[in-house]
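Sequence in, structure out. Go.
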Amino acid sequence: MAPTPLIRVTVWSEFRHEKKNPKVAALYPAGMHRAIADALGHHADLVVRTATLDEPEHGLTVEALEQTDVLVWWGHMAHHEVTDEIVARVRARVLEGMGLIVLHSGHYSKIFKSLMGDTCSLTWREATDKERLWVVCPSHPIARGLGAYFELPAEEMYGEPFGIPTPDELIFISWFTGGEVFRSGATWRRGHGKIFYFRPGHETYPTYHHPQVQQVIANGVRWAHSGLCIPDSCLNMKPLEPLPADPDATLRPTEGHR
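Output:
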């Protein structure tokens, strides 16, 4: 039996809230990206590195992306600081086959909005809501190992309408104590790449320490891994078989005599 191929994962985040907000720093002293990466690192089939906004080229150099099978993205307060050059670079890699997992407030990131082609806007409330995530597609690989639902005792509320194109697959729907519902786990395909948006993960809550959340992200990484890298091209295709002579060719004006 052939060994399971290793999946190369890059976890990207702004790493800004942790430096400015003591509450966030207490929850994620090494950064949210590090907490997510450490959880993924417990899986033998995943090889994980991290990158952050303030690194050169945001840590997403050409070489780094070439060595990334799945990119996990968390952003919030500095979407506007991500350069258009890097957004275009990441987008091109997704179209070539790199998987992309967008977490929580990454819904408003340049890269997600670019790939969705929509507003990606929503309603929100940071309060004391409990979030109950219902598994509406239990046969999907991203839902593997989960029950009918799981709960987060406190999370920021996101509510509909959510300005996204109709998902290819809807996996989770969230309900909040205030009564709102939200399409909290959805997938799309763009080019040769697969995209998964997963809602939970506000920085002031310990969401990324939650075992079911960690399981969903690990499942999402495996689902998003295509193993492909198919660069975009627009080739002039030669016929595979001889073409019959065109009987009307002599009736057409030649170039320069139209």
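Check: The domain at 7-117+184-232 is CATH 3.40.50.880 (Rossmann fold). The mean pLDDT is 95.
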